[in-house]
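LOG
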Amino acid sequence: MKKVFYLFLLFCVVTTNAQDQRVISNDWVAFRQTIDVQTKVKKKFKVVASVKVESNEPKAWAGIWSRVDKKTEGVDFFDNMEDRPIKSNSWQTYTVEGTIDENSKALNFGGICSYNGKFYFDKFELFIENAKGVLEPYGIMNAGFEMPLKNGEIQKWEFGVEKGKVRKVKEYAVFMDKSAVAGNSSLLLEGTGIVVKETGKIGNVEGASPQIGAMISMLEDLKDRVERTVKNMNQYETDYLHDEKANRIGSLIMHLAAAEKYYQVLTFENREFTPEEKAKWGTALDLDKGGRDEWKGHEMQYYLDIYNEVRNKTIAELKKRDDVWFNQLVMKEEVTNHYCWFHVMEHQSSHLGQILFLKKRIPPQKEIILEQKIKN
């Protein structure tokens, strides 16, 4: 009998959480443990821990946190102490209290810290109400951080606030420290290199006239929100195309940069794009199919670097001008310079909404494994 070789291509499509394991950039970090909870009656619980903070930064703070996840989607309880932030540089004990009930699925708890500084955590305790109405201790693994770090990770604890989504934050280093409330060590999270931007204010920009200062602050506030939304997106998310009429999120960031570049030459130089500029920025400005085909294959930081370079020039040029110029008409148009830059500002807002819509609709990344099998 002849041996016939059949080539079978087996495509195994596996949902991967690889994008959830990556290092991200953030101005805060959290760590947690999660336990499954099943109860037919309402029960109280409390999380207790010792914390101290060493920082010269007014916005720096720490907290202990807890969240109760429902059996259906959603959250029954959440408290991270943001309304009563820990800033003391001496060890003190803090408590978060809540309840679980028949709708509860999981209890999450841990520590959180924000901005630059040294944040110490020790002696976590968990108490859950028993059938007699007494809060009794529930065993926590590595509650006092006596176990050494393993590959830079806290044993028995995970970074992040969602199960299965481990978030290591590059601005924070992890140490075991000899300063301890009990035992021989505590957990130390050290935040460095975080730029703290003033928010919640319009105007009063150094070197800018009043109206221009107000515009700069609004432009920057919106750009910061755009950047926070997209900066930790991976290549798959950056290039994801929702449908044939949608735009990739990377191309939308490029579009924001291109539109701002256009209004730079229009208002600062009183002209349109040159052929060379149109060749460089045209597809990003127009988007449509050309933009979808051209602006892909880059990491998100590539687009953000271009966006920031354009914005730096915008701010430098606006500061050279005053409110009289701001209210002058542009070329032969029936709009003012002020109106043009108002449009750039609201244009960012419009596309931020689009980006948020698209981001929520990105499906989990699929990994295709190609396996060849030969049969006789």
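LOG (cont.) second protein
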Amino acid sequence: MKTYDWIVVGGGITGAALAYELAKTGFSVLLLEQYSKPQNATRYSYGGLAYWSGSTPLTRLLCEEAIARYQILAQELNADIQFRELDLLLTISADSDPETTAASYNHSAIPPRLLSVQEACELEPLLNREAISGALTVKHGHIHPEKTAQAYIQAFERAGGEMQISQVLQVLQDGVKTTTATFHSANVVICAGGLSRQLLKSAGIPIKLYFTHAEIIETPPVDVRLRTLVMPANVQRFQLEAESTQVDELWDELGNELVPPILDAGAIQFQDGSICIGQISRAIADPHAKVNSEVSEKWLRKGVGQILPALENLPGTWYHCLVAFSSNQLPLIGAIPGFESVHVFSGFSNPLVLIPPLAKRFANFATGQKDGVITQMLI
């Protein structure tokens, strides 16, 4: 039976990018994904690339590497990933002070510029001027996340990698057991997003990796034209993540909802004219928890409609996925102590920016090369 150098679990952009970089480096790699049609966070992502948001020497370095990586990535992968630059508009609610909100971004590598209500509405005519006290703007990168993940997978297979659609049931010391077979490898790396914690727990491996249930509405191509990527300046999701991870043990009780759900009202229009509207985040410890889609959709439409009235009643479909995160907004990377053949590469808070440079660094590190950035992030 064939033994691989690496088995990568999870076919979202995290697993796809890492599998590609490992295969390109010369390892024999098997990529396992449970769904033939993606249902992961990559599939329902806004696709934003917040290059400007690096706030520490480490994250600023990775943002710079990401810019350089994306500028050549379409050519390297031989695919159209719809890489572009657009205006990000960060709305400031009517009851918030614009100057105070702007000051909270001063630590960013490129602090966003403060706009008056009039200037914000000139930049994005669909805005409801009554709902805001101002806005912030900065140039923002954007890709089509699903097409980018697929481009990575196709390049991975051209580099000699193998992919199978199969659900991993158990992580072993020398491979994984799936619904179809047991595969053997020298190393396993978990890139399964919101399912990573449960998957590792079933193998007796505790890890401080968490997830939200994220909900969005996706429209078909529409005539409405959104000029910018709209998000709130005060993102509640980060506060939810911080509050929900204060007691790790609470995540092992599947019935727990750690904190109340939040809605960050935003929207992005893709190049085909479809719009992603979102998002609700729920910190429910059970990855298979059922969410009331009808109630959620009404909440989403009303919340986004207050900021962008023209989007509230567009035809669209509600979707739900899991989004992984850590307790400190940095990903969990590296071999798990006590389980040296089992690795994790997950929990990215700024995933589409951080994954490409870190996947490349991780693959080189796996060959034995020293890497100060990966060393800083090892769990």
